[in-house]
Write a structure and sequence with these properties.
By secondary structure, the chain is of the alpha/beta class. It has a single domain (about 10-195), classed as Rossmann fold, CATH 3.40.50. The chain has helices at about 40-50, 90-95, 100-110, 125-140, 155-170, 185-195; strands at about 10-15, 30-35, 65-70, 75-80, 110-120, 145-150, 175. The radius of gyration is 16 Å and the shape is globular. Bound molecules: guanosine-5'-triphosphate (GTP) and magnesium ion. Guanosine-5'-triphosphate binds near residues 60, 62 and 152.
Length: about 200
């Protein structure tokens, strides 16, 4: 599939395990949020067309830190890879460690422009996502929802899951179905993100 946007020059900025290590707020930031292993890092790489930029892994819970990437698009912005939440197999203490860090970031970050929430298309929204969407709405944070790994379902089932997720989360527009394997939906998500940064576009 052809890409509708150029591959923006993108570079790693920094990682942080706690708010004191957050980089100074400079560019507007789009944060990628979702369950561990949902495909956050893979989608960041696909969006900017740069394999291996954000580290991906078959082992859930790979990204334990917040990672910032600077995208030299028009306009320039930061893509922020947040640690995955809700991975059941890590010890309970660790399981909850994402919460204060993610909450600190999402509630305090002055430069946060929007959130890209990822949900595995085969799982659909669960408790965390059902809680998270109204939490963001209350704070007036723009949100784009994408259902990941769409290559795992045939098209008819994809459509069913898109409708189901839209209803469950009470979204004003249908979530995108995306796949980093087939490139399904990548350009559409990119455009939706740019629209958050430049509302008139
Ligand atoms: N079939 C398929 N697999 C995918 C897709 N996107 C990611 N994966 C796989 O899913 C696994 C997890 O991907 P990551 O991008 O590391 O997921 P993550 O959300 O960053 O995971 P954590 O950092 O652990 O929270 C890897 O094995 C990827 O290759 C996709 O679109 N289709
Ligand atoms: Mg990751």
């Amino acid at each position: 599939m052809s890409r509708a946007h150029p591959r923006p020059r993108t570079s790693f900025v920094t990682s942080a395990a706690s708010p004191k290590d957050f980089p100074p707020p400079s560019l507007p930031e789009l944060a990628v949020v979702g369950r561990s292993n949902v495909g956050k890092s893979s989608l960041i790489n696909a969006l900017v067309g740069q394999d291996g930029l954000a580290r991906t892994s078959r082992t859930p819970g790979r990204t334990q830190l917040i990672n910032w990437f600077e995208v030299s698009a028009q306009p320039p912005f930061h893509l922020v890879d947040l640690p995955g939440f809700g991975y059941a197999k890590v010890p309970t203490g660790m399981k909850d460690s994402w919460k204060p860090l993610i909450e600190a970031y999402l509630s305090e970050r002055k430069t946060l422009a929007g959130v890209l929430l990822l949900i595995d298309i085969r799982r659909g929204p669960e408790e965390e996502e059902l809680d998270f969407v109204p939490w963001l709405a209350q704070r007036d944070v723009p949100i784009v929802v994408a259902l990941t790994k769409s290559d795992k379902l045939v098209k008819s089932k994809r459509m069913v899951e898109i409708t189901r997720a839209r209803q469950a989360l009470n979204l004003t527009r249908a979530p995108f179905a995306v796949s980093t394997l087939s490139s399904d939906g990548i350009d559409e998500v990119w455009r939706a993100l740019i629209k958050i940064l430049v509302p008139a576009k």
